[in-house]
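User: Assemble these into one structure.

Assistant: Restating your components, then the assembled model:
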Amino acid sequence: MIPFIFRRLFTLVPLLFGITLLVFFLMSLAPGDFLTPIKQQRDISEEYIIELEKQFGLDKPLYQQYFLWLKSVLTLDFGYSWTYKVPVTELLGNRILATFLLSFTSITFAWVIAIPMGVLAAIYQNSIFDRLSASLAYAALSIPEFFLAIVAIYVAAQTGWFPIGGFTSIDYEFMSKSSRLIDIVSHLILPTIVIGIGSIASIMRIMRANFIDAIRAEFVITARAKGVQEGIIMFKHVLRNAINPLISSFGFALSALLSGSLLVEIVMNYPGLGQLIYQSLLREDQFVVLAAIMMSCTLLVIGNLIADIILAWSDPRIRFERDT
Amino acid sequence: MHGLIHESGLSEILKMKQNILKQLLNRPLGFTCIIILAIFYLCAIFAPFIAPYTTSEQNLKKSYHPPTGIIWKEGRLHVKIYKNIDPTAAKYEYSFGNSVPIHFFAKGYPYKFLGLIPSDRHLFQVDRDNKIYLLGSDSTGRDTFSRLVYGSRISLSIGLIAISITMIMGFIVGGLSGYYGGKLDFFTMRIVEFLMAIPGLYLLLALRSALAPYFDSAQMFFLIVIILASIGWAGTARIIRGMSLSIRSRQFVLAAESMGQSSIIILFKHILPNLTSYLLVAATLSIPGYILGEAALSFLGLGIQEPSASWGLMLSQAQNMKVFMLNFWWLLTPGLAIFITVIAFNVLGDILRDIIDPKMKA
């Protein structure tokens, strides 16, 4: 298993190399660089700007700039954010934590709701519940995430039940430990629901289809013939087989959430990785963008890897050596 | 679907298409979707005729005006007249009995019908001094309904244009790499995998900021199409590659090869006809993605620019504390329009898939 993990992590190297090269190239095509705003300030002297350009290697040709950056990354120095005036690693740390928290809550929320719903829809096929949940799933898949986020803020503003966006309240620093926890949780509820609704719909549909397939399998007939109780058949035999394809989609779900929550993070002003990438791309804060995109690609690969490991754990027929 | 098409493929395809349309119209859900989409697209085509005002016609005295009520009076439709009682909170009140008649097919601002025939007739208008706001007005008193109708032109056409580009590109790249295999296949598939590995929205943003200086705001529409298409073709190409890989080992392809037909002809004459039904379903199911992509870009302020209107852009203007706190719900209608369009395309695609190949159902 360990060689397998290493092999998978090794595929990250060309991927990251390609992506950073592409992003570097695309960002250099855009006019100006992250020093442009400073150059327009009159009180900053020419010499200082030239010194800065030298410091960031902006006076060198493009390919040298890239390798300069690559060299510092290999020594785990991700550079310095000009707009936030802090090292990139420090900036990313908080953001990744926030994005991770949101991804975790929304995946949990989606699975906890979607799996029982999918199972029920499959067991009671063509019932009113099945039809209702199918049309709800259609609606949920068709609603743009950012529109849902706007509607959520609208509801929050009208009812006052939830805070309107953000990660913590203004007076967070003065709160006791328990009320801090409550504060963060109350800020998480709306983004979790907004992001979760789309995945609920897709997971539910996959779950229902898998479950129906598994019900028709021969081992179910055998189990019924043996006189096993219907409930035990459903949960011990059918569910375990039906859930496998979903576990492999877990990695995709994680990666989809990491990039898909960008719009929701922006609308709801949630300080996550997506919002950071968006803002620093607009400000051409090159080092932040590169590091953040590297981070989110790495998370994506790790997400897929975790999914594979869980899959092997839940289904003993799968061996690592075969699927590389 | 398999082996349906041989040498005289085209007429058979046409027959199959007619058959599909007939089956589609026979299903109530499919019929509803087609009607909804037809209405939307007709609105987009005849936008200047239907919209009572232009997208940029402001009225600063009537910002955040609520939707005007319509009443039946003196044997014709009248629109209620509202008075601004509190400008700071944008509060309007209907003064009882005060209304003006709606004129149908009346004269308004001039435009070119279908882009050719000059005209100034509009579906409905009210007298010059008053305004009809079917869906209220925005912060500068522009008519939301007119902007919605004009915005549909961009939001609805972008999906169609982008999907045709991605389908053509996906077919050419996927078809060639599946047909030839070998080094070409290896090379293109690595590019495809690479494109698919990058989170789409970030690539969208990076491309947008890179390409922006080469386009002015009038060309922004094309820029967005190019961006969306250059990301979208990868997934299509991958699937088409797999399909053409399986088709190329079929007997009729082998026969054509042994007869010495050139590979381009084989690709278009033998492989393409076998892919049409898949392409049809895939196109219908991926149009929503492009509509949402444009909406997202415009929403972030990176797409269509003022004063033109698109649904995403209109939603980004609804993102205002005033809107949320003072209950200006009508500014959220573009979201509803996106929702209805997307759900119609999704349902239509699923029904098409059912009709064409029941086995394809996930």
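The longest strand of chain A covers residues 80-81.
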